[in-house]
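Quarterly update from the structural biology core.
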Amino acid sequence: MRYLIKICFLIFLFVSCKKEIKLFDKLSQTETGVDFKNELIENEKFNLIEYLYFYNGGGVATGDINNDGLVDIYFSSNQGKNKLYLNRGNFNFIDITESAGVESSNEWKTGVSLVDVNGDGYLDIYQNRLGGYKDIKGKNQLFINNKDLTFTEMAKEFGLDFEGFSTHSAFFDYDGDGDLDLYLLNHSVHTERSYGSYKLRFEKSERSGDKLYRNELDKGNTFFEDVSDESGILSSNIGYGLGIGISDINRDGCDDIYISNDFRENDYLYLNNCDGTFTESLEDYMNHTSRFSMGNDIADINNDQYPDIFVLDMLPEDEEVLKRSAGDDSYEIYEMKLRFGFNKQFSRNTLQLNNKNNSFSEISQIADIHATDWSWSTLIEDFDLDSKNDIYITNGIVKRPNDMDYINFISNEKLDGGLSQNPNLLNRKLVDEMPSGKVSNYAFKNISDLSFDNVSSSWGLDFNGYSNGSTYEDFDNDGDFDLVVNNINDNALIYRNNSREHYSKNYLKVNFKGIKNNLYGVGAKVLLWAKEKSLYKENFLNRGFMSSKSSGLLFGLDTIDVVDSINVIWPSKKVQTIYNIKSNSNIILNEEDAENEYKGQIQNKELFNINKSLYGIKYEHKENIFNDFNRERLLPYMISKEGPAISVADINIDGNYDLFFGSASFSESRLYIGTDEGNYIENESSFKNDFISEDVDSEFFDVDGDKDLDLYVVSAGNEFPYSAESLRDRLYILENNKYERKDNLPDIAQHGSVVRNYDYDKDGDNDLFVAGRVIPGKYGFSPNSYFLRNDGSGLFTIDSLNTFSYNFGMITDAIWHDINDDGYKDLITCGDWNGINLYINNKGTLLREDDFIGSELRGLWFSIHIVDINNDGIKDIIAGNFGENSKLKVDKLNPLKMYYGDFDDNNSIEQLISFQKEGKEFLISNKDELSKQLNYIAKKYVSYDDFAGLEVADIFSKKTLLKNKILEVNELRSLVLLSKDGKYEVSYLPKMAQISPVNDIQHLDYDNDSNTDIIIFGNMTNVSPYFGSLDSNYGILLRGIGEGKFKYIDQKKSGLNIRGVVSKVLPLDKNRSKFVIGINDNKPSIISLNDKD
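Predicted structure, tokenized:
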């Protein structure tokens, strides 16, 4: 027995002491021979104060400089000597910098590329530099490969000796002439010319503006011609270019350009017109971007064979750092920038999902990759060979200039010891006031369905420092990508990937043999199909911040043994297809073997058509300028901008649907009559006397029993005081084909939301449920919702018993439905900080069903829709919620909370919203936001450091919190309450349905398969700066696949491309093949199903 115990103990020791195998091993300087360090030395003349990009670091370029089959490394040093390392195999490198003649001495170097500039089959080196600024002198350098491990600097001879604010370069064949052209990415520094409207982007700057150079090698000239103006490239000094990505964004065979611009200027999306020119199209394709855009990468993250775009920013994940840092603008500044002509921008990483129909949906927050702190380089690649592209991010800044205490130090005139009172402080002293920004690098594993896991630690990539440039290569030719990273004030990092050695994953490596002067096939695209997998990669060199990689692609195949086929699109637009390729192969594709011409993507017929003419409808919803945040600064979103109201009915009984559009306050509502020709003519009914009211809902129904349709309109407006005349709902009676307002309603004035008619007491006339949205100025408190009894003649009175029996909450939608099949329709409601509540109709008395499953689902609900999803004959409940594409992450154990009440005893209401993170409860508001509403906060916490990282209980006493009220949210996903065996169970809508708030839902059966399909619309843009802009839904079609399940139909197939905040969607025909869509502050839209071929 003792012997057995001893054996077991030894086995335990062996297992316990066995080293954990990580995906990456960080190799030591001794192992690799790479001793490069980007050492920064600050002095009084040149530092962060004098040059705002002092801490941006240097790049790294990789490529096989001697064509021996091993990839070599070249590092860029800001101030010291660059270094070139020759790969001798097995991660053994030797320094050949001096003998190669590529030291590139003196400051200031930035990005670097290894690329065959002259088309001789050998890689040259192009080094970007800062020059002509302060005492920094120097021009960009081009080291031409002499084919003997030496180089000759020839930038001037090639026309590439640019002097100015150069960041990085991208070489690609934009005009398809067989040689590599150059996009020169430049940046700027703040001057008096940096501030103004968007028109500044059209003022040319020779030293700061980007440039496009056309390679004249195809004409026999070793020279690059500046074609920036004629090609449509913007070259101003407000383009603070930090990142560049090249990709065929729209898959038309021509290479496009994405530029990340720091600060206020938009990012640029240059679409290649395939004629030597580009069109800047970002605002046509994207609703919002990062604000301090830094590095970017472009690759397919969801395996739909379209490239997606990931852009880095500097939003901290750590709550303490976040609350110490300057972040997004106040709403007033944000609006001012919009008026100045700039696009919506927010301080966070952005992942732009390519919808394949000239639109992108920003999904970084649902993917949970939006906050990685001061991030520089992102690499999107399949690092674990499972056929899904993962993400690597480098991080860190030596000093944080956005620290709020530092900003206060240099700007607050009253601060003792600050810059204002000590204007002669040395730059060194100013820099010392900034805190360190040392932070971990990140790695995210793609787990499908727009989701990523943070694997920084488990993959061995959580280096803590100041990492900048990075790229990936297969240094040991084992079939997986290793990593190399350039650090400030620390040794460069080389990571060995263990996917092949320890995890036995399969791969396919693809190299290219091009024609003419693009011998490495830069710009070739490869589509791969293997079993159920479809992959897409592009052979561009610029990968990583100010960095580049060698030519060639590597596909992870997981356990697949044979690739069914690959399709190659060359830069010349020649195409070839290869079949049945064994895994773990290294293949070389030859452009000479490509014979067919690329014709672009096959354009299949879209399911929906968006009608541009609107059939004669000239109505446009126009919001007023009221800003809710000026009065209630801690609101999560505005309540005053929730229209338009829309109602559809056949008013004149001619078989055509007619349309009512309810306006915003200070605009007139409109009524349109449908014609036999399918057009609409405006009715003579006048609503101008009620133009001051804000219309948010409406309903046609027979009020007075005369067999025609009258009209009820719900009034709202958070800008109006409680009980204002403009908050009174309106009843219009149809008389002589015109609507006239009648005073048939009780004396009720409130900010409403919903009206639903039904004869709930079965006395033969239509009664009403009229819901309250908010009490103006008191968000959180429950307004009254009313049941109005009809006396049969159209005169309504308050049903006191039903009305005042319950606290309904802030209602956003309601519907009548006989849920228990007793012949009486019951009422289902949903709301803001509320549940999906059921009120059983007991012969005219409404009784709340507390055990209803929806009641415990506390959400930010905006819509409900009733339809039989699972074909069991019982209607199910679809509920539209806030969605998951925000900073808020909740569940039943970690709810979102809102404390609301008068926290400072000044007779105004404050809303304190908190969230749970790692067992702690934090406010979403920062110190400045809180202080504007609660003045004592600024006095209590003098510095931002005092406030940063505090939990709710640290800021407010238990007594203060308990004396006020609280609401909670434990569910943010849109879902279906699916009937099953006499009960309801929760079934969540697909991930794409969670990318924005869902404001309305409609059902149809577009494919006639007897399964119910649905379309959902929404978005929300008038939100607090914390949330940014929730605008990723262009109209989402979900196909019913049976048993209550849905499958997302992509935008290219559906044809849906509706931008803006949709408030209402209604069918325009009995077949549900045509719908009218109400869009806030915009014209409506009409969509219809296309005829099937």
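The radius of gyration is 32 Å.
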